[in-house]
UniProtKB/TrEMBL annotation, chain A:
SMART domains associated with the record: GatB_Yqey
Family: Belongs to the GatB/GatE family. GatB subfamily.
Keyword ATP-binding assigned: yes
Domain Asn/Gln amidotransferase residues, every copy: 333-480
Keywords carried by this UniProt record: ATP-binding, Ligase, Nucleotide-binding, Protein biosynthesis
PROSITE patterns: GATB
Assigned EC number: 6.3.5.-
Source species, domain of life: Bacteria
Function: Allows the formation of correctly charged Asn-tRNA(Asn) or Gln-tRNA(Gln) through the transamidation of misacylated Asp-tRNA(Asn) or Glu-tRNA(Gln) in organisms which lack either or both of asparaginyl-tRNA or glutaminyl-tRNA synthetases. The reaction takes place in the presence of glutamine and ATP through an activated phospho-Asp-tRNA(Asn) or phospho-Glu-tRNA(Gln).
A Pfam family reported for this protein in Swiss-Prot or TrEMBL: GatB_Yqey
Substrates-to-products reaction catalysed: L-aspartyl-tRNA(Asn) + L-glutamine + ATP + H2O = L-asparaginyl-tRNA(Asn) + L-glutamate + ADP + phosphate + 2 H(+); L-glutamyl-tRNA(Gln) + L-glutamine + ATP + H2O = L-glutaminyl-tRNA(Gln) + L-glutamate + ADP + phosphate + H(+)
Protein name (Swiss-Prot/TrEMBL): Aspartyl/glutamyl-tRNA(Asn/Gln) amidotransferase subunit B
TrEMBL record, chain B:
Function: Allows the formation of correctly charged Asn-tRNA(Asn) or Gln-tRNA(Gln) through the transamidation of misacylated Asp-tRNA(Asn) or Glu-tRNA(Gln) in organisms which lack either or both of asparaginyl-tRNA or glutaminyl-tRNA synthetases. The reaction takes place in the presence of glutamine and ATP through an activated phospho-Asp-tRNA(Asn) or phospho-Glu-tRNA(Gln).
Gene: gatC
E.C. numbers: 6.3.5.-
Official protein name in the record: Aspartyl/glutamyl-tRNA(Asn/Gln) amidotransferase subunit C
Species for this entry: Methylophilus aquaticus
Pfam family, one: GatC
Known catalytic reactions: L-glutamyl-tRNA(Gln) + L-glutamine + ATP + H2O = L-glutaminyl-tRNA(Gln) + L-glutamate + ADP + phosphate + H(+); L-aspartyl-tRNA(Asn) + L-glutamine + ATP + H2O = L-asparaginyl-tRNA(Asn) + L-glutamate + ADP + phosphate + 2 H(+)
Cross-referenced InterPro entries: Asp/Glu-ADT_sf_sub_c (IPR036113), GatC (IPR003837)
Family: Belongs to the GatC family.
Keyword Nucleotide-binding: yes
From TrEMBL, chain C:
Catalytic activity entry: L-glutamyl-tRNA(Gln) + L-glutamine + ATP + H2O = L-glutaminyl-tRNA(Gln) + L-glutamate + ADP + phosphate + H(+)
Biological source species: Methylophilus aquaticus
Family the entry assigns: Belongs to the amidase family. GatA subfamily.
Function: Allows the formation of correctly charged Gln-tRNA(Gln) through the transamidation of misacylated Glu-tRNA(Gln) in organisms which lack glutaminyl-tRNA synthetase. The reaction takes place in the presence of glutamine and ATP through an activated gamma-phospho-Glu-tRNA(Gln).
UniProt name for this protein: Glutamyl-tRNA(Gln) amidotransferase subunit A
EC number(s) from the headed UniProt entry: 6.3.5.7
Tagged with keyword Protease: no
Enzyme class of the recorded protein, top EC level: ligase
Keyword Lipid biosynthesis in annotation: no
InterPro entries (UniProt xref): Amidase (IPR000120), Amidase_CS (IPR020556), Amidase_dom (IPR023631), AS_sf (IPR036928), GatA (IPR004412)
Lineage: Bacteria, Pseudomonadati, Pseudomonadota, Betaproteobacteria, Nitrosomonadales
Superkingdom to which the source organism belongs: Bacteria
Classification via PANTHER family: GLUTAMYL-TRNA(GLN) AMIDOTRANSFERASE SUBUNIT A, TRANSAMIDASE
Length: 481, 95, 494
């Protein structure tokens, strides 16, 4: 039988705020245990929550970015369950009325080597604000667990998709796209190691061509794209094999073990949950007005889609280039800055996607850490534009700049890379070359076009690469008459 | 909706309150009496009435995102049943 | 002096006829003498109280005295007070020393009032007789075989027995007004949102409201000036202009100070369930109000009988969640023996909570659980709106509503403990006010004779429209200018 996997994601994105969602305690990562656990974080008797404005604005930004409905009125509810890292015995979340409603995200799915990437729209069901739990530190003391509540109350935006994805590749493409988007709009630092972006993946399988969804299992807390890919692939295979062996799938929460590459059901969550949601009487309905939305929209950066359209329209870039340059905000910003510093757009695009990107990859750096700034790159490209150096020489200059050898002009000077554009000087070189290579001249004259290129090469070599290639071409043609 | 002993055990587990077999019967009796009182509500037709969560029709005030809390771990943990190295200790949590 | 008003005490302090230390000491002495029999206080800390009194004397000497500077106030043990044991009447918090101050406590500290001690209460404010306290029941100073009412029973007994100048209480379903009625003093539950709930241990968050418990309306007005006000730490705290609750009191003199006031009498408050002796006292009080110039109109609160079932869904539901934080992990009682985490939770909570609290947690858990939410919780919230609308309708025809605060006078200790439902009916006239979020007050209106021939106080309830506290206090004050019920003290405690 042919099987089809159906995947939906719930992503917990930690919002970029200074303080917790319901108290003025710091959210800085990595502090000593419980030093950022204020009276609200540890749920002393009598304490009360007050909602963080910044967290709400982050949610609005996300809603605007995915073209979603933003609720004029949303409600915070209590999700009741006992767990040592949940100090109040309930998590404040949004249940019936979330702040962000239906929206969509378009993803590019890289397909196999033989086929091209394809585009797919992933529907977002909702996104809601909630507080994070603390952390359990196992075996802090023999047979005991230690509870650190520094993270308790950290603001999260939980983003839930429809079960729209049909492969691990699609799920990973969506997760990567979302990861980039939340950083793009500045609501999440995207740090997966620190748990700022965690995905729960719901996986089920069904016979291909059928409508009814299979029983799903939820893979919890995936914090790397690589693990997500592995976990989904393993889980899918496991479910198919189980069904083919005549077994049934039980709804369950599972964990992925990166060491074994396997998923296994969690013991503690097996008990049937009855969260007894009800509206939190300590909090009032959250109102978002049109003015709130306009104000937040004004603070938002241009979104990737809009920027792509602008790159195509304004800079005449290809759709592919525009898409590549908007894969991350930092790259897009770098490119725009290069162009704004006076460099040619197409040339800037080629350099950013080419030399700059290659160096960054080789050194495992992000563009923010690039030793060559956008302004410096623009200065370099201008020297190509005004014929001071050739493209080839520019590559050497770029290497020099990367290594911190100085400014563009200083490096050109130091390496003697200045292009020769003096007609007389070039003609002298050509004469020498023609004299020394009579055989090639004869070949050319007998109709072998290839010989022309060889002569150009000889001229460039004789000029030590400094002659302006366009001029060499033109003069050589004339002189060969 | 009549309660039975299984309901008592189920809700006691949800509420994390140990109820012994002997207490369960007494609890069932008392809770049934309270539920009897509550049942009066079912006679009221509430079709179309918006539930009332708050007595004032106001919306949530928002707090500026400014750190106002300082570390008071020592004070807070002075009243904790068990701590070590700044952590609250509990019997091993199994995942 | 023990029967002096807060204003009089203020004058004595300001004119240096007495110091705050002396005043505090005299109360502490009365407490040492009478508290063992009444059990109004859970925690008394002479050293702390006297240190505050000393500081108050310095303020007074420096000319910085405010209305309540140096005056000893009893605090219900539901308010977290830094450095004070704060038990909420529960074994769960038997050893809990609060590391922070409730808003109400800070407000009293800010004016230099003296915290005289933490008063007894029904465990987590769940009860109408103060018999659910882990620290033992409180006795009614008018008859020690009877209950003082609850849940603010300790504060009630302390005010009635003059073991404090005034006290604080909280009222979720009548916990200030019913004990005020049973112990014969003035108690006000303000409009929901007027007094910050920050640091007040939550029972039912959407209903809980703190208020003053004192001898007179005038004293309550002075207390309100300290307690009310916006607090940004409570999302449900209302940001309103500051009011002087004493502003209208002086005008309550002369022939007919309440001329034109329309008093609504809900017919449902005088129907079956009301004790005949209590009814007589209320009728006499209403007659007195007519003499003060008021007009009487009959109004109706047709859904009042539903307020008890609605309350016993909503309050336990909220409480079941509010009390989940008592899990023995970060503070509070932890069982001595357990094999694993689940057992630690189950035993700690079974041992730490008393029977009534457990019942309410279980009822609340049940009504919120899967499959029952709509039939119970949602339905109750819908009827809550009907109950609130009844008041909106009634206030079209009257300015204030009057009636009994409790269906009977103080009942015998143990009389209703075996039947929770009978106990719940004690709140028949008070709960609807909490559900609607309105202000309600009880003032002493006279006495009924007990079967043993003892006088037992009866309270008149005055219910106002939202934010009408100042007017209600005026109305109470006008009555207290022509009657002396509020001045009377239990025998043997003069």
């Amino acid at each position: 039988m042919q099987w089809e996997v159906v995947i939906g994601l719930e992503t917990h994105t930690q919002l970029k705020t200074n303080t917790k969602i319901f108290s003025g305690a710091s959210t800085t990562y990595g502090a000593a245990p419980n030093t950022q656990a204020c009276e609200v974080s540890i749920a002393l008797p009598g304490v009360l929550p007050v909602l963080n404005k910044q967290a709400v604005e982050c949610a609005i930004k996300f809603g605007l970015a995915i073209d979603a409905e933003i609720a004029q009125r949303s409600v915070f509810s209590r999700k009741n369950y006992f767990y040592p890292d949940l100090p109040k015995g309930y998590q404040i979340s949004q249940f019936e009325l979330p702040v962000v409603g239906k929206g969509k995200i378009t993803i590019q799915v890289p397909a196999g080597k033989s086929t091209e990437a394809y585009e797919k729209v992933i529907h977002i069901t909702r996104a809601h604000l909630e507080e994070d739990a603390g952390k359990s530190v196992h075996d802090a003391v023999d047979g005991m667990s230690g509870i650190d509540l520094n993270r308790a109350g950290t603001p999260l935006l939980e983003i839930v998709t429809e079960p729209d994805m049909r492969s691990a590749a699609e799920a990973v493409a969506y997760a990567k796209k979302l990861h980039e988007l939340v950083q793009w709009i500045g609501i999440c630092d995207g740090n997966m190691q620190e748990g700022s972006f965690r995905c729960d993946v719901n996986v089920s399988v069904r016979p291909k061509g059928t409508e009814k969804l299979g029983t799903r299992r939820e893979i919890k807390n995936l914090n790397s794209f690589k693990f997500m890919q592995q976990a989904i692939e393993y889980e899918t295979q496991w479910q198919i094999e189980t069904l083919e062996d005549g077994g049934t799938i039980q709804q369950a929460t599972v964990l992925f073990n990166p060491d074994t590459g396997e998923t296994r059901a969690m013991r503690s969550k097996e008990e049937a949950n009855d969260y007894r949601y009800f509206p939190d009487p300590d909090l009032l309905p959250l109102a978002v007005t049109e003015e709130d939305k306009s104000r937040v929209r004004a603070e938002m950066p241009e979104l990737p889609q809009a920027l792509q359209a602008r790159f195509v329209g304004e800079y005449q870039l290809s759709a592919y280039d525009a898409s590549t340059l908007t894969a991350s905000k930092a790259v897009a910003d770098y490119f725009v800055e290069t162009v704004q510093a006076g460099a040619d757009a197409k040339q800037s695009a080629n350099w950013v996607m080419g030399a700059v990107s290659a160096k960054l990859n080789a050194e495992e750096k992000t563009i923010a850490d690039s030793p060559v700034t956008a302004t410096q790159l623009a200065a370099l490209l201008k020297r190509i534009g005004d014929n001071t150096i050739s493209n080839n020489a520019a590559k050497q200059v770029f290497e020099g700049m990367w290594a911190g050898e100085g400014t563009v002009d200083a490096i050109i000077e130091a390496k003697g890379l200045k292009q020769v554009s003096d007609t007389g000087a070039i003609e002298a070189i050509i004469k020498e070359v023609l004299t020394a290579n009579q055989a090639m001249v004869d070949e050319y004259k007998s109709g072998k076009e290839k010989a022309f290129n060889a002569l150009v090469g000889q001229c460039m070599k004789a000029s030590k690469g400094k002659a302006n290639p366009a001029q060499v071409n033109e003069l050589l043609k004339n002189m060969l008459g | 909706m009549a309660l039975n002993l299984d309901d008592i055990k189920r809700i006691a587990m949800l509420a994390r309150i140990e109820v012994s077999e002997s207490e369960a019967q007494e609890t069932l009796h008392k809770l049934s009496g309270i539920l009897g009182l509550i049942e009066q509500m079912q006679a009221v037709d509430t079709t179309g009435i918006t539930p009332m969560s708050h007595s004032q029709d106001v919306t949530q005030r928002l707090r500026e995102d400014v750190v106002t809390k300082t570390n008071q771990r020592e004070l807070f943990q002075s009243i904790a049943p068990a701590t070590q190295d700044g952590l609250y200790l509990v019997p091993k949590v199994i995942e | 002096m023990i029967n002096s008003s807060l204003k009089q005490l203020g004058h004595l302090l300001a004119s240096k006829q007495i110091s705050s230390v002396e005043l505090t000491q005299s109360y502490l002495q009365r407490m040492a003498q009478h508290n063992p029999g009444i059990n109004a206080y859970i925690t008394i800390d002479e050293e702390k109280s006297l240190a505050q009194a000393k500081a108050a004397d310095v303020s007074i000497a420096a000319g910085n005295a405010q209305a309540l500077t140096g005056i000893p106030i009893a605090q219900k043990d539901i308010f977290c007070a830094k450095g004070w044991r704060t038990t909420c009447g529960s074994k769960m918090l038997e050893t809990f020393i609060s590391p922070y101050d409730a808003h109400v406590i800070s407000q009293f500290d800010a004016v230099g009032a003296v915290n005289l001690g933490k008063t007894n209460m029904d465990e987590f404010a769940m009860g109408s007789s103060n018999e659910t306290s882990y620290f033992g029941g409180v006795k009614n100073p008018w008859d020690v075989d009877r209950v003082p009412g609850g849940s603010s029973g300790g504060s009630a007994a302390a005010v009635a027995a003059r073991l404090c100048a005034a006290a604080t209480g909280t009222d979720t379903g009548g916990s200030i007004r019913q004990p005020a009625s049973l112990c014969g003093f003035t108690g006000l539950k303000p409009t929901y949102g007027l007094v910050s709930r920050y640091g007040m241990i939550a029972f039912a968050s959407s209903l809980d409201q703190a208020g003053p418990m004192a001898k007179s309306a005038e004293d309550c007005a002075l207390m309100m000036n300290v307690m009310a006000g916006f607090d940004e730490r409570d999302s449900t705290s209302l940001n309103r202009p500051v009011e002087d609750y004493t502003r209208g009191l002086a005008a309550m003199t002369g022939d007919q100070p309440l001329k034109g006031l329309r008093i609504g009498l809900p017919k449902e408050y005088f129907a079956e369930g009301l004790n005949a002796d209590v009814a007589k006292v209320i009728e006499t009080a209403i007659a007195e109000y007519k003499k003060l110039g008021a007009d009487i109109v009959e109004v109706s609160l047709p859904n009042n009988n539903l307020s008890i079932p609605v309350y016993y869904v909503l309050a336990p539901a909220e409480a079941s969640s509010n009390l989940s934080r008592f899990d023995g992990v970060r503070y509070g009682h932890r069982a001595a023996e357990y094999n694993d985490l689940l057992e630690m939770y189950m035993k700690s909570r079974a041992e730490g909570f008393g029977a009534e609290v457990k019942r309410r947690i279980l009822i609340g858990t049940y009504v919120l659980s899967a499959g029952y939410y709509d039939a119970y919780y949602l339905k109750a919230q819908q009827i809550r709106r009907l109950i609130a609308q009844d008041f909106v309708e009634a206030f079209k025809y009257c300015d204030v509503i009057m009636g009994p605060a409790a269906p009977s006078t103080a009942f015998k200790v143990g009389e209703k403990t075996s039947d929770p439902v009978a106990m719940y009916l004690e709140d028949l006239y008070t709960i609807a006010v909490n559900l609607a979020g309105l202000p309600g007050m009880s003032i002493p209106a006279g006495f009924a004779q007990s079967s043993e021939g003892k006088p037992l106080p009866v309270g008149l309830q005055i219910i106002g429209n939202y934010f009408d506290e100042a007017r209600m206090l005026d109305i109470g004050h006008a009555y207290q200018q022509v009657t002396d019920w509020h001045q009377q003290m239990p025998a043997g405690l003069e």
